[in-house]
Here is the input.
Amino acid sequence: MKLKTLLKTPAITVQDSMPLAEARALMHRHGVQCLPVLRQAELVGMITALDLDAAGPSSVAEIRRHDWCDAMTRVTVADVMSRRPLVLTAETPIADAARLARSSGVDAFPVLDAGVLAGVVTRSDLLAVLGGLLGHAHPAGLGHILAATSLRSGLGGALGEALRLATASGAVLTALHVLPLDGRLPSVEGATAQDVGRIERARQGIARAALASMCDAGRAHEVACDVGEGAVAPEIARRAAELDSDLIVVGKTTPRGWRKLGGRRTIADQLVSLAPCPVLAIPREPRKRADHASR
Amino acid sequence: MLLDGSPAGERALRWVRELARGTDCVVHLLMVTNPARSVRDGGRVVAFVDQLEDAARHAALAYLDRAATGLREDGLVVETHALAGRPLEVAWATADALAADLAVLSVTDLPADVARSARLPILVTGPGCLRSA
Here is the structure.
């Protein structure tokens, strides 16, 4: 995350020729403790409430009145500002800014974007962000992600995206492959129920092994692999409900040929209407040139 | 993200917050209003297209600004857009124009082939989805 996400624009600024009393009133009006100081449009310094207090009238009663009149009329921002302030850019990572705030002891930094003052970031702004991140290290919204995988080429992107999300959020990931019912072997004459069962188990074993090898490709995160059987979309929705999933990630294809003409709904579209949680549909990866060449 | 002002849409807003948190992405909130023609009373035109569209656009932008406030407080960069037309067509055209990486759809009246018509990754909260992040 970069500083540009924190900036409140436009920045409140003062000119270096402004009398101190006006600068104090401006800080009070906007409820800020520091202001960038410009000469025309060029950043020349920073002034803080502490600088103003330090430059205030003497505490000795006899000379206070004289001091105060003098300060009101002649002392300007340029006389008390800090020159050559530490400057950050809008592209500076927040973590780097926090480290600099700690090491330098500076409370506020002017932030430039393409050389132009874009705003001010304060130590309290940085603390607010870091506090928010600590509170969401494991977002409550993503406890479990179900990645519905396909062994068809080009649909591996869904699993990759699910892995990325699970790693970022700390969610538990289950990769599920559903063997469609219409892929079931027709009964063979002479085959016993035991034989058909054995073949089905072998088929599931092959799918599970393929799934595990896909998961291994990006294994920075523990992934549970599961193979189901049935009507694909209802089975994925059923498993999502069973696993109390917070998100289903699925690859999506574009139907071609007769499927397109017949208006057949994609698995992703069926899931949208059945799923108990949001569905993230990832388009098929573009085919590689070599694939086209070999056709 | 396409919003239609429904509670379902606002639930999906929390998913956007979760997915965008910690990234540098810009969140674009989009509301699509119906293209207006004119309002007639006994054959007399009492309001014209531009007046109606302008009023609808302002109402949509006010809603989107309210929706954006929470995201902005979380440090996200949010831009709002109110456009007239057919919601999905406008959403896809806007996603193309912005070179969006992800579209989040949470309108109550989604067509059955919403995923099929998308050319980019989409996050959809369907009618059975009661979860919020």
